[in-house]
């Protein structure tokens, strides 16, 4: 079958989110054909180029989200009227509160009101997409004064969000600009018969902007949509907006917009595959139907850590007095609490050392946080020396992967007897899974999917509680047998749940299930123009040369769905299904 893989800020670029996962998925499903439709986030990402793609990738089309030039399209009177109606409905749905009929309304009426607003949002979104397909790009219209005025009218209308009513002109301009950036995929030329209309299934590697092309392909061509979220986009927006310092009206309107978009994506998707139960709960709260949800854990390469995890000496090769932390250095990881906890550990076990392995997050904030952590470490642990003539040494070290002492991740985890995670915000804790592959016992804070991942193979403490973190570390440092037992159980669990093989097998099964239950309906005709009743048999959705019919796009108008296509010579069924 042909899969349209939709990405945003990742694959096939050298850097970005979900890049490794997408590459492993594509390489693992060599029996299928992949068309990649990628949205880039920055100019730097595009300049870095792509990774080497496997042969099953037949097409790559890219578009930037970081810039959008006005295509010079000038709408006529009818097109301007269509835009005003659609954008006005979109703005009204965003600005309306969850219960517009009044605070005293009964729950049933509140649910009906919310459903009506969701339908209004969806109708407006597809109306804008149809306008872009008919008349050209929406960039100029979405940036126009008319768009800002439509937002202002919606904010002042009865039943609008209380915070939105106080929106000033700068707030409205900020919201309009954000909506224009979010809706840039609507103006792309991907939605044609020889584009996304030719695939059997759209697989969005994230929600939000990545899923928008899948929504439109489903709307225009009836192609089923699969959405995978290892990090819920709506949650990420909430976390990011809390640190930006925007006006309350801007935060409220953007939260409403992204919430409505997430609800539409979840409602239109045939299946949704969260990466863990934590993401699954978020999706349910955002409107996803529980019957559509299938948890599929992300796959990781266990072979990278096999030498450490399966070593004969196991944990005995590690320094029994060393704690290891691995990750990206940023405030969400709460290294401040870890350093204070380590100060308590040193009181009980004076020989203990702490190795912090990782690079700071991008931007000035990451470097500033790293400098703050180093200053705190120097204050809490003055350089120590065994004798009056010896050179002092700090028990806390800050290192990066690739150095002489830590050449790779496996060596980082092997350097200590215990791996620590101190985060206050976490999605799927990749560093914990890597430690589990290495057969290491862990002490973690109870955030995100931590408890789900370790499943009883490590100790869990409350976040922002240095004393509890220290007590758990001391307990495992003093009990070698328990530490090794937990490490062995952790490796067994990781091999069962978190390998690339289980991830690829799960998606292969899901692909077949979706296409078998909701195949793309097209009429196949022979060279004489007569319909072929069995032109696309059920076997055509399985890999192999099962059928001599191939679907080929015939000349037709842009809006005639389900028009006949002619059967041609024999080709692999995955290309024609």
Tally of DSSP β-strands: 14
Q: Kindly estimate the percentage of residues that lie in beta strands according to DSSP.
A: 5-15%
Question: What structural class results from the helix and strand content?
Answer: alpha/beta
Beginning-to-end CA distance, first to last residue:
6 Å
Q: Percent helix among the residues?
A: 40-55%
Unreliable stretches: 99-105, 545-577
- Biggest sheet: strands side by side, in what order? 3-2-1-4-5-6
Q: In DSSP terms, counting alpha (H) and pi (I) runs of 4 or more, how many helices?
A: 22
The radius of gyration computed from the alpha-carbon positions, rounded to a whole number of angstroms, is 27 Å
Biggest beta-sheet profile:
6 strands, parallel
The overall pLDDT average reads 85
Shape: globular
Name the assembly state. Answer: single chain
Describe the structure concisely for a colleague.
The chain is α/β, with parallel strands linked by helices and 577 residues long. Helices cover 44% and strands 12% of the residues. It has 22 helices and 14 strands.
